[in-house]
């Protein structure tokens, strides 16, 4: 059968009879060797993982609804549905289901409701062939009971029948009564059988059984049975831990008895799943899915009940922010709020939104500001976790709060500055907390999640706030560890300078690497604000001091920062780099690295390769003019020769362009000659210099020289010798792309595109008319 794929959503029916979305993927009908039959497979469209694998059983009733929905049940409490994006896809899969079952695709249900006798026949078969009879609940029959429970786990039908039998006869409580007897008699063999029985009953995966087993009067006996694992020499002491070691702390007294019972039950069931039960094997993965659901829905119920109790939460936050609250009490309150937020992750999105808005209204952010500044490490860690929940939920909510703070408080106690200081002062050698906080800061300053409202732009306002009040706190460790570099110019150039202040401490180097990572993110996303900050603080020079660090990862972070700046191809940055000669520390690092072929070597060469490929002319000219002699010996890559080639090509191009503008004296015609003569009346000509704009600083000097002219009479036409064109002499840093000239006075006889600027300081007889306002000095333009 051909393997056709259609886009579908997979749904399962939960215990509350609500449909849960299990994911979106593509469905196909394929023969699965392991299942020995045609099966429905759904693979996730995101990562290709298997969302559903269901064999098309001949006796399963499939139903088609609303043209795009196929629903069926694989067990009493396991209903499935496929919701198709297209009707055509639904029809195709429906035809294949009907083909396997031998039914007419025109029907909307595969099991014919009219043929009741046949249906009854099929229902009678399991009753007779798979009937489960439970042995009497006696000490002598425990081994038999254990064998029975273990044997049915491989058969879904027999699991169902056993679960029904256990429920109908009140069998669970009888078994737990035997457990108490065996423990009193120290009957180890019986206790080992009871371990197998209780573990097997949990693997039946039935919510109705869990309700009995996890009730207040049964759960501790269930835990007791699970202590006697036959594989252990001595039993575990789980009950002792749950009753004596684990203490239930009520930070604020809970008056609702149902809520208290639900909290106790959830904690104990979570303990059974996480601590007592062994990690399920591949074949047992689905055996405890209902147990997971049981815990999940308990948590949802707890959060909902607490959220509805307004007095309780109000009291929590009142005590949390009260200066009179004892430190130990505050620690318990913070841990409670952390657990509360963790439980909220189980809520549906709309309910989670309401939950966090409730916390915001109660003052969660001002409270965090207080507890984050406490000395207690556990409290600070819990506060960071709470802050992460809030930032992930709504960065805008946090930004809105912090932008209102400068009106009410000093810079040092701003929430973001408190967070930055926690990152900088993290005492963990691996900086686990700092890494977490750095990720949160990046989320807060990421323009991608900033909203633009009708009245204001969040991005502009928040970034202006951040760079005004917070950026100096973030960069303080970086500037402190590179402060000496201001005096580096006084040191002898060319000597390999090993900086004694450059951080050799591993933890400091890790911190600086985190700060550089954040600054690199700013370069990429904040353009204007970070550019102004870098220029004002000469930040790149300070960062490049870290190229001397013995920690290669830190040198690479500094290089990555420069690479991101150059990657913007912004001429403001390029001029800043050239003016500060900021390639020197990078090239020194390359030369100091020698012939070692490592990541630092590759990263530096990639930087120069990028400049070459992108043909960044100003940087190419600077590198070749200043560093080529040091780099020309590197021949294992063609990068530097390529840079030299680009430089020579540009030089040739400029020379060719210049040659098009060069003038010979003989090219001036008579009209131009007359104009020169009129302007030179009774005067000696003097040397004329071409004056160039600063933007074209590498142009040519002294372009044309005028020769002496003699007057022939008062009214006769003056004939001055035509100036001879002297060879243009390129300046040392010539790389301009065009030559600047000036416009001549308006006259119909001007035919040339380029004439030197002529200035006659003694010519006071000229007419002072409008043409004087339009003098060549005042109207520069680019030659065509």
UniProtKB/TrEMBL annotation:
| GO biological process: one example | DNA damage response
Q: Would I find 4Fe-4S among this entry's keywords? A: no
* Family matches, as Pfam families: EVH1_PP4R3 (PF22972), PP4R3 (PF04802)
Which superkingdom does the taxonomy of this entry point to? Eukaryota
Segments traversing the membrane: none
Chain residue ranges for the region called Disordered: 672-695, 709-784
Coiled coil recorded as keyword: yes
UniProt name for this protein: Serine/threonine-protein phosphatase 4 regulatory subunit 3
Q: What task does this protein carry out?
A: Regulatory subunit of serine/threonine-protein phosphatase 4.
Provide GO CC annotations from the record.
nucleoplasm; protein phosphatase 4 complex
Q: Where is the composition biased (Acidic residues)?
A: 672-686, 760-774
Q: Which intervals hold domain Serine/threonine-protein phosphatase 4 regulatory subunit 3-like central?
A: 144-649
Sorted keywords for this record are: Coiled coil
InterPro entries hit by this protein: ARM-like, ARM-type_fold, EVH1_PP4R3, P4R3-like_central_dom, PH-like_dom_sf, PP4R3-like
Biased region (Low complexity) positions are 709-738
Family the entry assigns: Belongs to the SMEK family.
Which parts form a coiled-coil structure per UniProt?
644-671
Q: Which residues form the signal peptide?
A: none
Enumerate the spans annotated as PP4R3 EVH1-like domain.
5-101
Q: What is a single molecular function from GO for this protein?
A: protein phosphatase activator activity
